Amino acid sequence: MGREEEKLEADIRDLLAAGRPLDAIRLYRGVTGCGLYDAELAVDTLVREDRLPLPGAVPLDMRERVLEFLRQGRKLNAIILYRERTGVDLLTAKTVVEGLARHHGLAARSPYGLVLLVVLAAALVIGGIVLAVVLSAPQP
Questions:
Q1: What is the spatial distance between Cα 125 and Cα 119, in angstroms, rounded to a whole number?
Q2: Among 74, 94, 101, 128, which is least packed by CB within 10 angstroms?
């Protein structure tokens, strides 16, 4: 376990000792980027088994790089980095990175969003033109 992981565990233990389990869960979520359920299980595991699991979490040493990619709108690069460094499958990497993005308020921007909007607008215009032509054609 690295220094950052040890600090996280110590901080969570301090919060639990102070009777602040919700803050301990929030801290775990904020650092790891995992969902509420996984954070709750991790803190519960620390209480029951005296160990803090970090599965499915973005390892602390790469977390800032993943967040940097997400801030730049480069979600695919963040997923690739996570996948290469952890060895997980693509779906797991995507899920974890998207969870981290949501937690930090970084909407997963898709480069296809604007393209989809333009295609939809073009389809509506073309449909309107076709309808106008059909309605204006002389009826036999």
A1: 10
A2: 128
Task: Say how far apart CA 24 and CA 40 lie, in whole Å.
Answer: 9
Using a cut of 0.90, tell me whether the model's pTM lies above it: no
Identify whether residues 32 and 9 lie together within a single domain: yes
One domain, residues 72 and 30: no
Q: Which domain holds residue 94?
A: 58-109
The upper half-sphere exposure of residue 44, i.e. CA atoms within 13 Å in the direction of its Cβ, equals 6
pLDDT band at 108 (very low <50, low <70, confident <90, very high): low
116 versus 28: which is more confidently predicted?
A: 28
25 and 6 part of one domain: yes
What tokens were used for 86? 């952890």
Say if residue 134 is in the same domain as residue 91.
no
